[in-house]
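Q: Could you fold this chain for me?
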Amino acid sequence: IGKPKAGQETAFRELMDKQVVTAMSRFPGVADIKAVWPKRFQDDPPAIWCQVLVEFSDSDAIDRMLASDERAALRPTMRTLAGLFDGVISHIDYEVGGHASAALQLVKES
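A: Sure. Below is the predicted structure, expressed as structure tokens.
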């Protein structure tokens, strides 16, 4: 529920696709990752600019990822990404059919 700052749309998407998702794919515990970019909206949902879907085999894998040096090393890039975005970046853990997964949400601040 937010969007990149004016004129930063391409830079935001390139940074997300080429650096953030690539780096996160190498985090310990990550089974799969993808950035999804909404194309159409129905029934007036919130305008989510992007979601990064990360899959793990179990909750221990999420804990390994969260505590990893690789994740800590990505923080400067995430600060750059956040600076291009008019909103907030959040982390939500989901359970999907018994498998653990997480999503990075890009949401406009209220």
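A (continued): The helical segments are 9-24, 59-66, 69-83.
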